Amino acid sequence: MAAIKLVYIGGGSSRGAGTMASILSHGKEFDGSEIVIQDVNPDRLHAVETIARKIARAQGLDITITSTTDRRAALTDADAVLASFRPGDFAARALDERIPLKHGVIGQETQGPGGFFMSLRSIHIYEDIIRDLDAVAPNAVIFNYTNPVNIVSQAVTRFTDRTIWSMCEGPIVFPKTVLTAAGLDPEKADVVMAGVNHNCWSYEHTYEGQDLMPLLDDAWEARKDDPSLSVHAKRMLRLATTMRSVPSDYFQYYYFREEVLRELQGARTTRAEDLLAALPGYWQHYEEQMRVDVPELDPARSRGGIHELELAIDVMSAYYNDKSARLPVNLPNVGGALPGFDEDVVVEMWCTVDGRGVRPLPQKPLPHAVRGLVQQLAEFQYLAAEAAWKGTRADGIRALAANPMVPTLAVAEELYDEMAYAHRAYLPERLLK
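Request: output the structure for the sequence above.
Response:
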């Protein structure tokens, strides 16, 4: 079993307790390891550390768990860095979602203007993390869950020599939306997706060994007027049958833009505002679990459930324990593994992970009907990463204007200036000029 030093940056978040529970559910794969939980809030760090240590003790694990607000001290001699943090917390996300709606634009916290500004904030922190790693842990591998994972990875891989593998469960969970909407059993399907994070499509899709599309066609005809089917499920089923490919759920923001925009503008609260209202309940639950001998996290009272960042842990375990696994990872398209995308563009695809690292499995091109939008999103990702790492206001506006959700240059300029001002405490000065 791999004995490593793992540093969890952002471990004091509302997902921290669930993530530690997830890591410890794989504890025997990491016996003898040291885990350092790092964040900026000492009280919440203490809560997560206390819960984690009690879980580890109850499971009889040989894992040392500590916490600190000192990031450089935490990273010293690290083997692995698990990064999942949100600069500005949910209050910043609320601005990412709310401000664009004033301009008739969907904010979307990972792929829209909201995601763009989150990338500016996240990558600003990453610059400091990279400096710390270069100084105290030159060989550490970054396992990234900080959003937007594609833009973060694009910046780090393009402008540094660090190894960073970013993860998202999307290619695993997105097919379930369409399959369930069609009344099919996801366990009987084999759907292989690729693209850029949160915006991938299937290039192979079978059900019990046969082409999935005729079954989706039949389901759409039978269920398109079914009132029991949610609006979102109906949209995804319709999109799959029209484009002849299984989509990411996030494509609703492009192919059903006007409907989704009206829904968001008419809603009383945004998703971030709902989460802000729920946060006290999560922390109350964690405080309760701190006081018991054997914590048992309630999925209904834990942010994101109790098995957070599971995919990153699977990748980490396969790598450090040298056990081959087939998993989706975001990494540069070296060798043109995914046809139609530049070699230095970070793409999301199924890979083999083992002690030698992460290597893409053979990929097929995305269907022509869907490839163009994904390529446009990849170009936006490339520009956004450049603006975040070394750009100015002009670079930021150019990137934002390339985002498919932003309709005109004037809107890009207005959005950029208002959002940059709102987030100025979390941005470098060069992006405000």
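The chain has a mean pLDDT of 97.
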